[in-house]
Every structure is written in structure tokens, then in C-alpha cells.
Amino acid sequence: MVNRIPVFLGVTGRAMVGIPLRTALVLGVALSAPAAMAQEADEPAASTDGRLPDLVVTAQRRDENLQDVPIAIAAFSADDLESAGIDDLSDIGTVVPGLVFSNVVGYSQPYIRGVGTNATGPGFENPIATYVDGVYYAAQAGGLLSLNNIAAIEVDKGPQGTLFGRNATGGAIQVRTLDPDYDFGGKASIGYGNYDTVTAQAYMTGGVASNVAANLAVGYSRQGDGYGTNLANGKDVDRTKNLAIRGKILWEPTVDSSLLLAADYVETDGIPTLAPAPGSIPQFNPPVASDPRDVYGDPQPYLHASQWGVSATLEQDFDSVSFKSISAFRETDYDSLFDSTLTAEPGTTFFITGKEPHRQFSQEFQLGSIDPGPLNWVIGAYYFWERAGYLNQTTIGGESFALYGLPSGILQAPDRVTKSGALFGQGTYETDGGLSLTAGLRYSIEQRKIHFVETLPDFGFDSVDVTEAKTFRNLSWRFAVSQKLNPDVMAYASYNRGYKSGTFNNADPTLYPLYIEPERLDAFEVGVKSELLDRQLRLNVAGFLYKYDKMQTTTYPDGSLVIINGGKATLYGIDAELEWAMTREFSVTGGLEALHSQYDDFPDAPISVPVGLPDGGTTYTTLEDGAKGNRLAKAPPFTAFASFNYSREIGAIKLDANVTYSYNDGWFAEPDNRLKQEAYSLINASLRLGQIDDGLSIKFWGQNLLDKDYAATLASQTNGDYIQYAAPRTYGVTLGAEF
């Protein structure tokens, strides 16, 4: 297991790039984003001679040592995530500085270094692309993954527009699940925690024939009690239940060829809540719950999401090149209802329902070099098809409409189709003197179509019926140069172009722009990667500069989501990462990111203004300078984590203990910088006792032990500012067995 824990260097005052540190970091600057995954998920933190093991990553679509890749990367094995108390992809920001992972009523919205999106709904894609076993997950509702059957997770920071494409303006999150093994084995666990939470997981693998192996993983969790109560009806809210099943079959007809078939199914049921943000007065000034996690809601909210997918990965090695094909189909269905007025009061009900089906197909071909030599290269072609909309017309309505003389509801039915194709290639040439030059290009063509219908059922006619199509063409690139200063130290510099294609709003084009232009990001990065103290200490530092143009930004002027292009922005900062195997029993890892972000130009930025008493709610205006000079949304000036791992064998028992600390300096919700999540700290801890031969084990764990109330999402809207809270303090015990 690669253990991660921060080392404090005793530096106080101000971080690099002139950003003040908070009192939580008076002990110093914690160096290091998570190091990177070991080649095997269960590889030990140090080799038998006490040195750190090589860490293998796939940011350049081939297996490489982390120290040879000129990219800032954070990566974890399954054991790393379990030790740090990370059991859901939305929690990974706890151990990845610079990553803010929002969860909005079941939609995943990761931000890396201030790059992300608040847009939710059919056809809206994240600029942080998520891949599972090389398959792109386009649907936001499919991005909240429970971490069952995970081998490793890798977060590639910065634009990944050459080898990954598909709108990866700000980075990529790669999830790798366990492949089948010919040796029979498995593991199982059952756990119980507060809020009457039950968890169970099982995994089994083994050979089926001499050249065929298979595995199966099942995970289940049920939260019996909600984190809050709907005071309007006395029922629990903020409660979830999950079921995840994944299986693979590996066929290796020859030593040079393999076919990996995979299938998965995930189902989530929940009761999501949007509560009034602290200090917000909802429209019509109805009663607000005194407990921030309680709500008044009518009707009772619900969420049901399911997804399934199949994929086939074919690999064939020839004399000097390797061929890979990845074919995949996915279906995601999302169904929800939530109260948008934030509180229940007769005559003020306003709710939104939506049944959102999403279908996608992707096909990728790769051809790459095999033989070690001065030139390593990969070329490929990619095709993607997607259809997303509403199965039934979504309802936006309620009794409050009557107060404005409006119909009892509005039915909206967007139907969106995307087709995208790309050719890409990247090569690295290394000289005898340790100088490496990397160049990559990706040319993509993408066509987006929308048919949007808005119906007023009380009046019996369609107020909007529009059909539009748009084709986008783009050339993205990556250039990098690196120099081995000695066998253990490498310096590098890179320039990357990130791109996200344009899109259409699900809104009345007579009121809001129908067409949204593409966004573009130019990223410059310099860094040093080093291994010191006879490979017992790994220290990597990277500085970056972003020039961001026409960013796609969201606003809620009438309670409906509208996307606009947000002008220009500049971001710069520093990442640092350190991993130290201090002893055979104690290891230390930590990470930090200091970030400066600023809008250079945003003249039409929406400015939200609280109405105040007696009416409540929010109104919107614009100012001459707009958001110029403001910080970007979800871009905290400083983030850090610190994880301490201790492992010791006592007779036939092995003890593993972990304490993970995470700090976030706070972030603004929107470009006007009015709503803010203040700074907060999180502490997770675990203690595991198990048999050395991987038999029985018992684990005691706790997450968010400080019981901090902090936002998973925060935004303004006409009905009032809303917040969705992350999970409060949770704790429990898990019994496990391995065989």
C-alpha cells in the first residue's frame, strides 16, 4: 500500500504567489499532492530495502514511471483511499489539493484549479472528464461513483485535450477497476455506522479456463436515517441507498493478445435537499428551519438514478507496435423531484421534476510503440455519440405561479444529440543526454443538435419550439520539454491547449442566448520531480499559469439554469507533493496548492442581489465592470491535505492506523463573489486490526470528525440562495475477510 502523509516544513506567513495562509496552517506548508499509484493496488509503501517503489501512471496513455511524466498528477490505490476514508468519488477532493468536487442533487461537478461547471441537465458535460477503464462518462448523473472494485484513481491536472479530448479543459479523472486474476481469491466486508447505515461488499476472482479469467464485485449501502428532517411532513431527508455490480471476463488466446469484456450496473435512491443558504431569505419570507440540515418542503423530494454499461477492450502486440480498441455503450437514467422554493408555505410551492435518459456510444483505436528506444509514440482515432433529453416533459411549476398570473406549470422537453470524431497523436523523443521533447496534436469535429419545446398546458399551446444544429472544429496541442539533471531529478516545462466545444441552452431563445460559444484554456507549467535520500523521499513541485477565454458560466435568473460565456480570466499558482518513507512502519505524505484566480474581463456577469424583507428572494442586475477583478467560482486560494499512516505487526496481527487532515481556504460560489463557503478543515481517521495472512479484520473508522457543515454546492436563484450540505460526522465499524 502506498501510504500518504504530509510533512510540515515550518514555513509560515504567506504561501508562494503571495496568498496568505490561514491559522490552520501555522505549523507550516504541507508539501505534496498525493504521490501516485503503485503498479499493483496492494504494493507496499516501501520496498524491502526501505526505498519508495516506482509509481506507474497512465496520463500519456501508456504505463510510465510518475517521475518521468512531465505532468502534475495525483493518484491513489484502493488501499490509499480506504485508509483516508474516501469511499465515494465526490470525497476525493479531501486528498487532492486544488480539487473541489460538488454534488448537486445527484449530479457530479468536479473543479480543478478553478476550472469546472455548475450546469446541470441533459447534454451538459464537465470540463473535468471522467474515465473508467478508458471509457469516457459523459453524463453528470453517472459521475458519482461508489468506490467498489477500484484498483486505482488518477487525477491529471491541467488540460488533457490531446490524448483524452472530449472537453477536458481542466483535467481528467481516471478510475481503474480490478482486472481478473487466474489465482482464485476474493474479499468481503460488512459494516455498520451511525445514521443506521449498513454497508456490504464482496469481490471474487479466479480462472475459468487455462486462458480465461473472470471477476465479480458487488457493493451495497443503505442509510436508514437521514442527515436532516423535512419539518413539513416529519420525514427524513438527505438519505441515500446504493447498489453497484461490476464484472469482467479476460480471454488471452495468445501471449500477445487479449480481450477484456466488462459490464456494470449502479443504482442510487436518495432524498436530496436544497436548503436556504445561511443568511438567505427565501421568496415570500416563509419559515426557515433552525437546524441548517432540516428543511420545509412540499412535496417530498426524491432521486432515483441508474446506469449500466458494457465495454470491450481488445489488445494485440505485433513486432514493434501495439494495437488497442476500446468499444463501449452506456445508459444512464435520472429521475428527480425537488422543491425550489426552499421552504413550504401555502401558495408558494415551486417544484421541478425531470426524467432524464442518457445514451452514449464510444469507439477508440490506439496504435503505439512497444520497443524501448529514443522515440515513444501513440496515435489514434476516437468516435463518440450521445443522446440526452427528458423522457417526459419536465415540470416546472407549483401554486406560486398563480401569484404572478402564470399557468400552474411549464413543461420543457429538450432533446440533444452530439456526434464527435477526432484524430490524435503524441510522441516523445529522448536524447542520450537525458533531454526529452514531447509534441502532440488532436483535431476534432463535433456536431451538436437540439430540439427544445416549452409548453404551457393551461393554455394548450407551445410557447417555444426551436431546432438548431452547430458544428465545431478544433485543433488542440501539447508541447513539453524535460531534462534529466541526474538519474533522480527531472525538470520540465509544458504548454497545453484545452478546449470545450460550444453548446445550447435549455431555455427560451427570446429571453436567453440559445448558442454558447466554445471555451478555451492555454496552460503553461514548469516543474521539478525528484527522489532524494536514497529514494526514501520523493519531492515534486510544479508552477502553472492559465489564460482562460470565453469560459462557460451558469446563472439562475428566474430559477432556470442559463449558460453564458464568461469573458477572460488568469489563474496561476503552485502545486507541491512529497512522500517520505521515514521508517518501515511510519510514512508521511501531504499536498498543497496555492492558487490565484481573477477575471480579467467579464462585462455581462450576472450580479445577484438579495431582495430582503418583506419579500425575500434574489434579483439580478449587471454592472459596467461586471465581475472584472473577482475570483473565479470554486477556486480556493489555498488547499492542503496531510495523511499520517502507521503500520506494525504484533505477533500474528497487523495494525494499520491513519489520520488524514484536509484544509480548504474557502471559495466563492459565483462570479459576483457574493456567496462564499468559508474556510473549513476535515479530519478522517481509521484503525484496522487484521491477520497478517489477509484473513479476518476489524476496522474502526470516522469521517468529518470535526462535524463541519460545509457546502457540497452553493448558488443563488430567484427563489433565494440555496445550499446542499456535504455529509456530517459519520463513524462506524467494518468486519472484513480476505481469501
UniProtKB/TrEMBL annotation:
A Pfam family per the record: TonB_dep_Rec_b-barrel
Motif mapping: TonB C-terminal box: 722-739
Record keywords: Cell outer membrane, Ion transport, Membrane, Receptor, Signal, TonB box, Transmembrane, Transmembrane beta strand, Transport
Residue intervals of the TonB-dependent receptor plug domain: 66-172
Signal peptide: 1-38
Membrane topology note: Multi-pass membrane protein
Alphabetized CDD domains for the sequence: ligand_gated_channel
Superkingdom of the source species: Bacteria
Location in the cell: Cell outer membrane
TonB-dependent receptor-like beta-barrel domain sequence ranges: 282-705
Family affiliation: Belongs to the TonB-dependent receptor family.
Entry protein name: TonB-dependent receptor
Species classification: Bacteria, Pseudomonadati, Pseudomonadota, Alphaproteobacteria, Sphingomonadales
